[in-house]
Design goal:
Pfam families: FAD_binding_5. Helices cover 28% and strands 23% of the residues. By secondary structure, it is α+β, with helices and mostly antiparallel strands. The longest helix is centred in the C-terminal third of the chain and has 20 residues.
Length: 281
């Protein structure tokens, strides 16, 4: 779609003052998908020169905001980490055309802050940290679970930029389980739940996305029993937190989130119950 209100595109490296009507341009798959009448200038990030994926000296994985879904998918297939399968599972939850896969960015998916954003699901479940750059050059770090505050809303200040998301080596060493539910075979996620068992202290975390207006990541000292898990989710996620749109009613999303969380709990606890394998769509 043409953005006929945009009168200028500048290099993201240029140190020009931020002004009303500016927007960062990554892959552009959202910006050019619908009218943006408030925009006047795009600040292009394509020449920033950020390495899409790199291992830091401490073993952490840094994912640049400009890393595409296709690039992350290829990397995940080669990644030597216990949690590596989760990368492809979340990339596949994107359910996008090859054009979108090759243009859409990890940073764009997070900054759109849609409940069904699978890069939010992936990085929140692995306790990712967002590096944010302000216009004055200052840097701050927030967890992915805190970065997204609601449908389409996040903690970014005016002109602030998401630079990267970092996953620790400890998180990458976690045993994980993934479940997704949709009203349609190739539909947007109505509920996406991920469980992770810490490789150091065997603590358990369950992350609920798509079903809720923002990510919910609940932690336990070990894998809880069914009732304890259900009670914790019920206490953390209030009625108003279950998302409501054409892809699923709140009651159905709530039901699926509880069901998928129990499947994950059983799988990672090794209960061998009826939910110990497979998934839902």
């Amino acid at each position: 779609m043409d953005l006929n209100t945009v009168v200028e595109v500048c290099d993201g490296r240029d140190r020009v003052p931020w002004r009303a009507g500016d927007a960062w341009l990554g892959g552009g798959t959202y910006l050019f998908s619908e009218p943006q009448p408030h925009l006047r200038r795009l600040r292009d990030l394509s020449r920033m020169g950020w390495e899409p994926l790199r291992r830091l000296p401490d073993g952490s994985l840094e994912i640049a905001a400009t890393c595409t879904i296709a690039r992350l998918s290829r990397y995940g297939k080669e990644l030597e980490a216990v949690a590596a399968p989760l990368v492809e599972q979340c990339c596949r939850a994107f359910l996008a055309s090859f054009k979108i896969w090759n243009m859409a960015t990890v940073g764009g998916n997070l900054c759109n802050a849609l409940p069904a954003g699978p890069m939010i699901s992936l990085t929140a479940a692995l306790d990712g940290r967002c590096t944010l750059l302000a216009q004055d050059g200052s840097v701050r770090s927030v967890s992915v679970a805190e970065f997204v505050t609601g449908p389409g809303t996040k903690v970014l200040a005016e002109g602030e930029l998401l630079r990267a998301v970092t996953l620790s080596p400890r998180a990458l060493g976690s045993r994980t389980a993934f479940r997704q539910a949709s009203l349609y075979g190739l539909g947007r996620s109505g509920a996406l739940v991920i469980g992770a068992v810490d490789p150091v202290d065997a603590s358990f975390a369950v992350t609920i996305t798509a079903a809720t207006v923002r990510p919910f990541r609940l932690r336990f000292p070990d894998v809880p029993g069914p009732e304890a898990l259900r009670a914790a989710i019920g206490a953390a996620v209030e009625d108003r937190d279950w998302y409501d749109d054409i892809h699923g009613l709140p009651a159905w999303r709530r039901h699926m989130a509880f069901r998928l969380a129990e499947e994950i709990r059983a799988e990672l606890a090794g209960d061998g119950g009826r939910f110990a394998s497979g998934g839902a769509r």
